[in-house]
Amino acid sequence: MINVRRATVDDAAELVRLRGILFGLPDGSNDGNWREASQRILLRRLAEPSPTMAGFVVDQPLEPVSDRPAIMNPSSAETARWVRAVASSGNRLAAGAVGIVEERLGGPGNPHGLVGYMFNVATDPAHRRHGYARACTAALLEWFTTEGANTVDLRATATAEPLYASQGFVRTADPAMRLVRPPQ
């Protein structure tokens, strides 16, 4: 069973690290100030008393240590070869998903106007193919339902589309469009 938990402000830096993975950017790369801005947003939004943003995460699991020299007592070798991946470096995440609930104007299919938007679904490359992203998105979908957002939007890469399709997402007829204006 995968242990998914609700993200807290303590997870903000790790959620930003996972976001960098989405963009193909290594940790610590000099790629502008988006990391600091994203962390500030997460710190503020995840701490709100009635948050309209939530994240769900999976901590890095117990992992075997394969590069450790065999100098330990043989009787404790079996237990010593398993260590917590986060023991020395703080809480590291294996995967996470973030979403927001927006209040829009209602319509025939959504009279109350609440819509969820899922984003920042990412898995650390060392922990892929274990169902962590699926578990995080399932928890986030449950949160959307609890918040009254029965319509959920997202943008998917071709690689991730089968995951979302398996959870009931379908392509929409209308294309996504974007306008980017230079900062003033």
TrEMBL record:
Domain N-acetyltransferase per the UniProt entry, residue ranges: 41-184
Domain of life assignment: Bacteria
Keywords: Transferase
InterPro entries documented for this protein: Acyl_CoA_acyltransferase (IPR016181), GNAT_dom (IPR000182)
One GO molecular-function entry: acyltransferase activity, transferring groups other than amino-acyl groups
Protein's UniProt name: Acetyltransferase (GNAT) family protein
Organism, scientific name: Paractinoplanes brasiliensis
